[in-house]
Amino acid sequence: MKSFDYVRPATVREAVAAAAEPGAAYLAAGTNLLDLMKAGVTRPNLLVDITHLRDLYHVEDLADGSVRIGALVRNADLAHDRKFARRFPAVAEALLSGASAQLRNAATVGGNLVQRTRCAYFYDVASACNKRSPGAGCDARGGDNRLHAILGWSQSCIATHPSDFCIPLAALDAVVEVEGRAGRREIPLELFHRLPGDAPDRENMLEPGEMIVAVRLPAEAARFAAHARYLKVRERTSYAFAVVSAAAALRFEAGAIADARLALGGVAMKPWRAREAEQILIGAPAAASLFRRAAETALAEAKPSGDNAYKIELARRVVVRALTLAAAGTPERMPALPGSPFAAVSGVVNHG
Amino acid sequence: MGFSTTLTVNGVKRTLELDDPRVTLLDLLRERLELTGTKKGCDRGQCGACTVIVDGRRINSCLALAISHDGADVLTIEGVTRGDRLHPVQEAFIAHDGLQCGFCTPGQIMSAVGLIHEGHAGDDPERVREGMSGNLCRCGAYQGITEAVLEAQKALEAASRKEVA
Fold this sequence. Notes:
The complex is a heterodimer.
Chain A: E1 5-7, H1 12-18, E2 24-27, H2 33-38, E3 46-49, E4 59-61, E5 67-70, H3 75-79, H4 82-87, H5 89-96, H6 101-106, H7 109-114, H8 120-123, H9 166-171, E6 175-180, E7 183-188, H10 189-192, E8 211-217, E9 228-233, E10 244-253, E11 256-265, E12 272-273, H11 275-281, H12 288-298, H13 310-328, H14 348-351
Parallel strand pairs in A: 1-3, 2-3
Antiparallel strand pairs in A: 4-5, 5-8, 6-7, 6-8, 9-10, 10-11, 11-12
Chain B: E1 3-9, E2 12-18, H1 25-32, E3 51-54, E4 57-60, E5 73-75, H2 88-95, H3 105-118, H4 125-131, H5 142-164
Parallel strand pairs in B: 1-5
Antiparallel strand pairs in B: 1-2, 3-4, 3-5
């Protein structure tokens, strides 16, 4: 690991001032950053340790019914916050489907948003990677790319964003609060991550030195609580990144879908909100054929980026199943295997 | 430039001068404090051999910078015994053959102590397996590990009921 300087600011303002130095990086739990530094992928000159900023550890209910989650709230704490999980069950399920218990005990809300892709060629400094070294080329294109992107990829990069948490956040119109030297601003989560285009090294809309201070879920997002699920297909039952995942949230009125939210994970370099598919669902009663049409629409633009054409049909089926699970209703208790396709689908839709 | 860090490790307060901020909590425990019960497996947060309990929560000590945990309370495998008596989780691992080579065992035990303390798994083996998925065992002693965690949890519950009564 390259050597670095270390500072521990006492306020957000001090942190932002310290991080203005070129080559600075914020340190939260470090569960991804330290790993990247050990691999030599990320080589900061200065770590600005924000873990002692106590104000960023709160989950607050705001007057307008929205919920504000501090950037340093640990994944496990948020997922096991009963009040939060009751209002946003798909978010809790996504969090608990990710990583391991040890990592969830450490990893933070803000860190989750800015974690890097797990593309093996990005991690291997001996491989060509346009994300790590702009202009170097992309060894993933001719390499082992079964798990790579099927939506929004470019000639320069076919990596995917690894987050589970961000998928329901994108579906539920979450907003990211960031602070920089120019003050505080807000970015809708759906627009926070960038597709690779010809600049895959730029992964999000943060300006240099800007820091995530909170993520907010609007009051409207809680209206899906009775029918909200996260489904994640992995290569092993637990402790693996998504091959494909989906967050599905429905609201019913008089037997028909009054509102619908759908986002996919593991398919692109950002959480993939499927707005056209949502429009197909709205106004119709839940039915397998309807869900299949929504899935076809969500994947209409999908193209294999390598040996991963299978992911397109897999993603359609994950969408159908996530919608089926959501229509059947949010379970009373968090499933033993959160987000797992091995759990039985229960409820009327399965039998109808 | 030196960095001073104070940690309470297994109940003993320790102040350490670090000449380099790169030291992980794992390396500090093993190399500076000679607490070599905590193992270095992958050193990348993938195997769980380095699991310790920090401020009541199980974490991977290989992905924690020691300097960032200034002021923390750390419990390692060396700190779980009660005098000469093994911790109920240790006893259960022996009783159920929850190990073969033993390299992953300190991490497994610390993870199990953390899991029982978290209290989300109950008596459901599926929830125990899910909750222990951050600890790999190359010898494949998983069945014994799951049985040991379930039994240790029962033993700890019975003990706490006795205390209350």
